[in-house]
Amino acid sequence: MEPDLHAPLGQNRPAGKRRRFRISVPVAAGLVTVAGVLGLSLYTMQDEPALRRTAQVPTPVPAASAVEPTSGDGQTQASRRNSAGPGANVERTLTDDGSVVNKYSPRSHDGSGPLIIEASRIGQDPRLAGTANEDLLEDSPYGPLPAVSSVGLRPMDHYARPWSGARGTRIAIIVGGLGLSQTGTQRAIEELPSEITLAFAASGNSLQRWMQTSRRQGHEILMQIPMEPFGYSPSEADPATLLADAPAEQNIDRLHEAMASITGYTGIMNHLGGRLLSEAGALEPLLRDIASRGLMFVDDGTSARSASGSIAKAVELPHVFADMVLDTELDRSAILKKLDDLERLALRKGSAVGTASAFEESVQAISQWVQEASGRGIEIVGVSALAEDPADY
To answer: Over the stretch 108-129, which tens digit does the pLDDT of each residue have?
Structure first.
């Protein structure tokens, strides 16, 4: 006989059998929830033994989401390195199970302007690419000059174009002379791929506007400084030219005046300069000043007697030596052939640097070639990615 499971205890049920209870799914879920709340309440009523290791660390917001190794004071290596700079207060909590919880809150700062929290040490947030980082500027009689921040951040790193980090074949192409021709400058900025580094002539026009436009489109930029060539004629040359026989103070003043023309650049590149580059005594104070400002120096490679490489090592200056000029012959086919030569050199060396001017033929050839080279696995990078940097050693 089928037992009546709804009968009172002991009635209509065979001896030795137990009553089976059926619990609906909603009821079961409710019981689990209640148990969880009770457990959490008991946990929080403790003397917070799992949350005792808490440290407040003033640091910029780290770029990586992964937790970095901490020292005994609860700070990561990055937070200790940046603890003096502006940014956020970070409350880092280590729980008993080994998890780390980070709580960020804005830190008070001087001034009425917006606070920019440094999110990355290499490369700038694209949304802010046209805006100078005030921590990387120094006042001068000529205007703001690049400077290393109080926490050691260099303009070369902050304004660099990010790249993949892969150690494949890399090529940097610099197109110079921007700012001298309004039409040529606009064409170069609009048509060249964002991977191309742009060099602005210190004597150009509307430089700040062009700088902002090019930075917002992803270009890394350089400041191009006129330097004394062999056969220099004062009557024909740029009056801001740095001279081999000029007092060091005069050359430094001219360098600073040119530097203050724009912001947001990673380094200085020579325009001409065969004679000055070969005179170590005149060149050394200039490169030392550039190094002290967290910039790199790009030698365009046109002077076989240049001393920039040896001096750069002595003053710990990041340095790039260009491998070839791409548009010595102003013909599109000839420029494409030079670009192919640059690729072969890069395949042999691992990397290579080419330079060109903002001529229409150069812009068209480079734009076409970059698209083709990317399909062959060549990575086009900002020139700072190929700098020989003492900080890496």
So the answer is: 655 555 554 444 445 667 677 7
